[in-house]
Every structure is written in C-alpha cells, then in structure tokens.
Amino acid sequence: MFLHVHPDDPQPRNIKTIVECLHDGGVIIYPTDTIYGLGCDIFKHKAIERICRIKNVEPEKAQLSFVCYDLSDLSHYTKSISTPLYRLLKSHLPGAYTFILPASKQVPKILKSKKNTIGLRVPDNKICNEIVRESGNPILSASLPGEMVEEYTDPQLINENFKNLVDIIIDGGIGGMIPSTVVDCTSEEPTVLRRGLGEWEE
Predict the structure, then answer these.
(1) Could you give the number of structural domains in the chain?
(2) N or C, which end of the chain is more exposed by having fewer CB within 10 Å?
(3) What is the CATH number of the domain that holds 137?
(4) pLDDT tens profile 85-105
(5) How many CB atoms lie within 10 A of CB 16?
(6) How far, in Å, CA of 185 to CA of 189, rounded?
(7) Is the pLDDT reported for residue 108 higher than 70?
(8) Is 88 exposed, middle or buried (0-12, 13-18, 19+ CB in 10 A)?
(9) Within the chain, where are the H helices?
(10) Would residue 200 count as lying in a domain?
C-alpha cells in the first residue's frame, strides 16, 4: 500500500492504518528527519527477521537501532541515565542523532549487539513521532538496502523498488540523503562513530 501522510498534520486515519499494520507484524517504509527507513514494531520478532532479509544481513550483525517517542520513552530501553548524559540527550533530541547506549532488559534480544548496547533515536519528524506515539511501542530504524541514496529521497521511486517487499510505503514528501550522526555514549566520553546530519562539537 502506498499511503500519503501530511508531513505537518498527519491524518489520524492514516496513522491508525499504519499502527494496525505494525501491530499485525507488518513492515513499513517511513520518513524520518534524515533518510527514509525500514520499520516494524520492535516486539515483532518475525518482522525484524523480514527486514534483515530485505537488507540481506544477519540479525546479530545488523546493528539495528530503533525510534522512541521522547526521552522518557527512550529511558525504558537503556540502563540508568546519569545527569550529564541526560543533559546531553535533552540538548540534542529530538534531532538527527542515533545514540548508542547500554541496552536494558526491555530491549528484545534480537536487537542487542554483542556488547549489549542499542542505538536509540528520537527523530524530529511529525509522521514518525505520531506513529510511535499511537503505537505505544518503538519502531525499528533500518536504512534501505543498497547504495542508491538518490532514489531513496523520492517516495514514488521507493514505491517502485520496494512495493512487493513491504506492507506500507508512506509518502511523507521528499526525504533527505544524509543519515543521522551516530554517537557512542557507552564510555565516559561520548565518541562520534559516524558524522551525519546532526551537528556535533567534540
């Protein structure tokens, strides 16, 4: 299904359709504040495996991250957040960042790295945030497979390439080409693992 959702004022009916699909174990392609991504409910094991097949990666090696609604939601999926870390997250979220944090017991095993960490995002995107809020569960954040980033900015082209692989492709307007900035916060000093759209001062 190719579904248009207004980027500034997402239609509740369309958000409901997407959330029902996620709760049924469906896979979607959705906009964020950076690039379009593949998503599913993080508690639907088979849907995560399906995304890994689309990307042609083993779940254990996929280094998957997921999208939370806000900082309070994010705090369920990581171990206790220190005051300096909380300030850091609060000053950058919502925004174009993925923070690598120690995973809590709430994180499904399939999503944890060997180091027991997880990448967490709170994008500055209304469609994405509404989906997560209405769903009640975070959604997986995985990049689309391949190198053709230019094609992944246009929902029409994404639809042509992926309509047979996923359940819903959301048209939320033209997407970006630069991914999020990835910051590892598992040691005392945060380390930038990938420079992306989010600005970061060392």
Answers:
(1) 1
(2) C
(3) 3.90.870.10
(4) 999 999 999 999 999 999 999
(5) 11
(6) 7
(7) yes
(8) middle
(9) 12-23, 45-55, 71-74, 83-92, 126-135, 155-162
(10) no
